[in-house]
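Task 17 of the worksheet. Students: predict the tertiary structure of the chain below and write it out as C-alpha cells. Keep your answer in the requested format; marks are given for formatting as well as content.
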Amino acid sequence: MSVFEGIAGKLSLTGNFNGTFKQIDVEGSTEIPEFEITKTRHSLPLTTHFTASVDSRNGNVVLHHVEAKFGRNDILAQGTVGRGGNGKRSANIDLRCDRGRIEDVFYPFIHSPRSPLTGDVAFKMKVTIPSGHERFLEKLNLSSDFQIRRARFTRYKTQESLNKIA
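Model answer:
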C-alpha cells in the first residue's frame, strides 16, 4: 500500500478472473490485517469480498458489489475507478453500514489512544478519491448521513456533564 501516501498495510488478494480481453470479470477477497492511517499510526483490520469488471482498453473498473469488514463495521459498497471528464482517474464509491461501531469509524483518524465516543453507528457515505500525489486524507472527499445510537463518551467527566444537562 506504500504507493498511496497517508495509508499503510500489507494487502493480500485472492481471486478468479473470467471474461474476454475487452472485459475481465473479477471475484475475489482482500485482507489487510492492519489498515493504517499513517498520520495517526492507528490501524484496524480491513477485509473485503468483491465482484468487479475491468475494461482492459482503458483500465476503468466497476465495483459491482463489495462486502467489507472494517474493525467491527459491516460495510456494503459499490462504485467505479476510472477517468473523469477532466481526464484524471478517481475512485467514486458509495458505502453503506447498517451495523457498526462509532469508535471503529473514529479511531483511525484521531490521535488519542481511544475514541472519545462509543456506540452503535449506521451510515451512508459517498467517497471520492482523486488521483494525485497529495496525502490520502488531504485529497479524500466524502459526504455522509449517519445515526449514532446508545452513545457514551469515554471520558467520565464529559458523560457526567451531559447526563446532568439531559
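Marker's comment: The first strand starts at residue 7 and ends at 8. The chain has a mean pLDDT of 90.
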